[in-house]
Design brief:
By secondary structure, the chain is α/β, with parallel strands linked by helices. It folds into three domains: 6-107, Rossmann fold; 133-188; 192-334, 2-Layer Sandwich (D-amino Acid Aminotransferase, Chain A, domain 1), CATH 3.30.470. The chain has 13 helices and 17 strands. It has helices spanning 15-26, 61-75, 87-92, 108-115, 117-126, 140-144, 232-245, 285-290, 308-322, 325-334, 346-365, 369-373, 385-392; strands at 6-10, 30-35, 48-53, 79-81, 102-103, 134-137, 152-156, 166-168, 184-188, 192-202, 205-213, 217-218, 222-223, 225-227, 249-258, 263-269, 304-306. The protein has a five-stranded parallel sheet with strand order 3-2-1-4-5, with helices on both faces. It has a four-stranded antiparallel sheet with strand order 6-9-7-8. A hairpin with a 3-residue loop joins strand 12 (217-218) and strand 13. The model has no long low-confidence stretch (mean pLDDT 91).
């Protein structure tokens, strides 16, 4: 695709979307962003030519889609890249977009299967990959019949950023909300080293891939610092999976490698993740998105980033709990911050005021910051009949 191509990014609040915008801008592309409010990090970046306020994909999916279709037509957008769980709404209605606009994602059915932790577990099991022992919990009767021994994990089938994850170490929880539309998965707790991967694929062919260990974390599981490592078993696993699924889009996995060196995939995020922070200008990340025939892009081993504000606010707690103060200090004073860029300083200068706004919003919603951050773009597996009717129609794509 020519560098005159126009790129539209949704989910502009996500920190990793800022890095995507910067990587495209560095290569000469014109980048636009869309978000549900003015309060997002990308609006402050010089990488963004123009940003748009759009309805919520969670609460107004039809209007969300209509707004993006209008933007792509008016601005003559060539390539639309979803960042977060708005991808489910886009994939459901991508036939509404003009023919000249490519929406970078797989089918809704594929994305839903991979995002749902239970169906993903059953899928990789059917493909012959080793899986942790898992049980679907639709009711308290299912929970009472559970044969897994402690410790084990309880988590909603549809969730993100470790929200709703419960580690059961002794007695089974007596007060637990079980949603029939979003049941729980009970999964054995695997001891071992934890890793994440991030990749981009076109019709089953990887165009880029990286892996990084889980180090300092927020909310027990969400990684806030990142360093590229070489892990051939993870790369082989991902390569095999995307080939078997003929997958197109961004895709990320969480792994545990047990002490006997057996590799288990725990869950899948068929969208952008923090792995995007680990690409530099020299990697030419846009080629991985735009060119299906590009040779595999492998970012520089050892390259690292951190979300410094999160390290200050939450990382020290992890260091205190696990007695890793030296490690924490080394990371904090040596890893570059995801926001800081000399040639694009405004996101760094404004990210703390944005955090204050997010804190206020979370207090207003009476929820944690991570839940507030995804509140109006989260996807929990269902559309209303009215929205489904809208998606089923085909409109003039000219």
């Amino acid at each position: 695709m020519l560098k005159t191509a126009k790129i539209l990014l949704t989910g502009a609040r996500s920190f990793f979307t800022l890095d995507v915008a910067r990587r495209f801008y560095e290569q000469g592309y014109k980048v636009y962003a869309a978000e549900t409010s003015h309060f997002h990090i990308c609006r402050f970046s010089k990488a963004i030519s123009k940003y748009f306020i759009i309805p919520s994909s969670r609460f107004q999916p039809a209007k969300f889609l209509e707004a993006l279709v209008k933007i792509t037509k008016k601005e003559n957008i060539d390539f639309l890249i979803p960042a977060f769980e708005e991808i489910f709404c886009l994939s459901k209605g991508r036939h509404h977009f003009p023919k000249n606009c490519s929406v970078f994602c797989s089918s809704y059915e594929t994305l839903d299967l991979l995002h749902n932790k239970w169906t993903f577990n059953q899928k990789i099991k059917s493909l012959g990959f080793p899986v942790p022992k898992s049980t679907l919990i639709k009711s308290y009767d299912d929970l009472n019949r559970l044969t897994l021994s402690s410790p084990y994990i309880l988590k909603p089938c549809y969730s993100r950023a470790s929200q709703g994850v419960l580690e059961v170490t002794t007695n089974r929880p007596s007060s637990l909300q079980i949603d029939s539309h979003n049941p729980l998965i009970a999964q054995e707790y695997l001891q071992g080293e934890k890793y994440c991967s991030y990749s981009i694929a076109h019709n089953g062919k990887l165009t880029t891939h990286l892996a990084y260990p889980t180090d300092c974390v927020f909310n027990k599981h969400a990684c806030i610092n990142f360093k590229i490592i070489k892990h051939e078993k993870i790369q082989n696993w991902v390569t095999t999976f995307v080939q078997k699924e003929h997958f197109t889009g961004q895709i990320a996995f969480d792994f545990v490698e047990t002490h006997d060196k057996k590799l288990y995939c725990i869950e899948c995020n068929p969208r952008g993740t923090s792995g995007l922070h680990l690409y530099q200008k020299s990697d030419n990340l846009p080629q991985a998105f735009l060119n299906p025939n590009t040779p595999l892009i492998s970012p520089q081993l050892g390259y690292s980033k951190q979300i410094a504000a999160a390290m200050l606010l939450y990382g020290w707690k992890h260091a205190l709990l696990h007695k890793k103060w030296r490690r924490f200090l080394k990371v904090f004073f040596t890893y570059p911050d995801v926001f800081f860029a000399l040639r694009d300083l405004r996101p760094f200068l404004f990210h703390l005021p944005l955090f204050c706004i997010y804190t206020y919003k979370s207090l207003k919603l009476k929820t944690g910051i991570s839940t507030m951050f995804t509140f109006d773009i989260a996807w929990d597996g269902k559309f209303s009949p009215k929205d489904l009717d809208y998606f089923s129609h085909t409109y003039n794509k000219s």
